[in-house]
UniProtKB/TrEMBL annotation:
GO terms for biological process, alphabetical: carbohydrate catabolic process
Keyword vocabulary terms for this entry: Glycosidase, Hydrolase
GO CC annotations on file: cytosol
UniProt cross-references to SUPFAM superfamilies, sorted A to Z: (Trans)glycosidases
Entry-linked Gene3D superfamilies: Glycosidases
GO-annotated molecular function: beta-glucosidase activity
Organism encoding this protein: Pseudolactococcus plantarum
Alphabetized Pfam families for the sequence: Glyco_hydro_1 (PF00232)
UniProt protein name: 6-phospho-beta-glucosidase
């Protein structure tokens, strides 16, 4: 195996999916705190206020807020040397726009970071992971208001300054490219205006507003990258892209062209801006033709150019096919689907498993960006069974991860500059899409049901010891 010395092995999480403590320590409400549970057939519902006798999964999640020492100790037992987590903006600035931060929130994260370091892990922190403060949504309509740029910069400066000697790796926005899509307001507006009543009529379903919000978030990200290097020149700042790797379903030229257009618009555009520091010509032409090109304020172009990232990070779970044939079979995916590949098998949730696609993706990205890379989300969701003896036999997860680790190894052999891998998620947590617990990713089982009931006790799965050996051997024992 060829994983380099010092390769970063660990796991990835998001505050709104595992932290809990939504009303403790001075924290304000974030968008997920007003989203009910759902399932595959029933979408999650957003409520304008917290309703009595309604279950909101993020309120408790798996209660890392009170279990962090126990959980971090377990991560340490698996020999993690990196742990990816997000900071909830509303725990630092409860409404998102206060002048002074909430010290209790800063202290909580400092305690968590110190515990990680004590257990041999370097933190990898995402500043915004689908959890805009509700104050930013209600007062400013998310990033559609340029004032939010400086609010985000203030928040980032606060935490980066506080932790400048303890945290080296930072990501600005999680899966920022979802801001391109109709349901992508998770990142830039906080909610989907097509489905919610909180937005004024001129915002609802307004694609031009969404691209303006995405532009403002890109400016905010670039400002933070530049500021971060001033706070500590040793910081490494990355973008984080949802990489839905796609193939043309057939060799028909029409399928190949349509797949290329999807890849540029959804998968590559945001990364191109954050790596190169400017809008690529294909996107400028697309937006101008649709009369949606965002307003560039004086200095925006220079800000984007000065705030390029140091590394490219991305999530990878599955691949999809693209075709002009509307009758082709559908397949599911990470917040969006595509057409099924007849050569691939699918997981229990319909996501097609494709480890070779990860090697292809790494080679493609290395050729395009020439930056160090991390795979910061990758894993298999499954309805794991806790047996009477409190064991979980998850060989299917071991098989999935073994094949994807082999794909990373092969890509490194071919010259890819891969520096880290944080699988999603090392401990069971609530689903972002449905709010369920049933779809489990972790090496650690959490005794909790879809309705939030359960003891919250943690149990090691079979994959726990397996991944610990993989990390300890730097990828040689699979």
């Amino acid at each position: 195996m060829t994983f380099p010395k010092g390769f970063l092995w660990g796991g990835a999480t998001a505050a709104n999916q595992f932290e809990g403590g939504y009303d403790q320590g001075g924290r304000g409400l974030a968008v997920p705190d007003l989203k009910t549970a759902g399932n595959v057939d029933t979408p999650r519902r957003f409520t304008a206020k917290i309703e009595p006798d309604v279950y909101y999964p993020s309120h408790q999640a798996i209660d890392f807020y009170h279990h962090y020492k126990e959980d971090i100790k377990l991560f340490g037992e698996m020999n993690f040397n990196v742990f990816r987590m997000s900071i909830a903006w509303s725990r630092i600035f409860p409404q998102g726009d206060e002048l002074e931060p909430n010290e209790a929130g800063l202290q909580f994260y400092e305690d968590v970071i110190d515990e990680l370091i004590k257990n041999g892990m370097t933190p990898l922190i995402t500043l915004s992971h689908f959890e805009l403060p509700m104050g930013i949504v209600e007062k400013y309509n998310g990033f559609s208001d340029r004032r939010v740029i400086d609010l985000f910069v203030r928040y980032a400066e606060t935490v980066m300054t506080r932790f400048k000697s303890k945290v080296k790796y930072w990501l600005t926005f999680n899966e920022m490219n979802f801001g391109v899509m109709d349901h992508g307001e998770l990142t830039v507006l906080g909610l989907n205006p097509n489905d919610q009543t909180i937005y004024p009529d001129e915002i609802k379903g307004n694609e031009k507003v969404r691209f303006q919000a995405l532009h403002n978030a890109l400016v905010a990200s670039a400002k933070v990258v530049k500021l971060a290097h001033e706070i500590n020149p040793d910081f490494m700042i990355g973008c984080m892209i949802c990489h839905i790797t796609s193939y043309p379903l057939t060799p028909k030229p029409e399928d190949i062209l349509k797949r290329k257009e999807f890849d540029l618009l959804f998968t590559k555009f945001v990364g191109d801006v954050q790596v190169s520091g400017g809008y690529p010509s294909y996107m400028t032409t697309y937006l101008e033709k649709k009369n949606m090109f965002p307003i560039f304020e004086p200095g925006d172009a220079e800000i984007l150019k000065a705030g390029t990232v140091d590394m490219y990070t991305f999530s990878y779970y599955m691949t999809i096919c693209i075709t002009t044939d509307g009758s082709a079979k559908d397949t599911a995916g990470n917040l969006m689907g595509g057409k099924a590949n007849p050569y691939l098998k699918a997981s229990e949730w319909g996501w097609q498993v494709d480890p070779i696609g990860l090697e292809y993706t790494l080679l493609d990205l290395q050729d395009r960006y020439h930056l160090p890379m991390m795979v910061v989300e990758n894993g298999l969701g499954f309805a794991d069974e806790l047996k009477e003896d409190k064991t979980i036999e998850d060989d299917y997860r071991i098989d999935y991860m073994r094949d994807h680790i082999k794909a990373m190894d092969s890509a490194i052999e071919k010259g890819v500059d891969l520096i880290g891998y944080t699988m999603w998620g090392p401990i069971d947590l609530i689903s972002a899409g449905t709010g369920e617990m049933k779809k489990r990713y972790g090496f650690i089982y959490v005794d909790m049901n879809n309705d939030g009931t359960g003891s919250l006790r943690r149990y090691k799965k079979k994959s726990f010891d397996w991944y610990g050996r993989v990390v300890e051997s730097n990828g040689t024992l699979l």
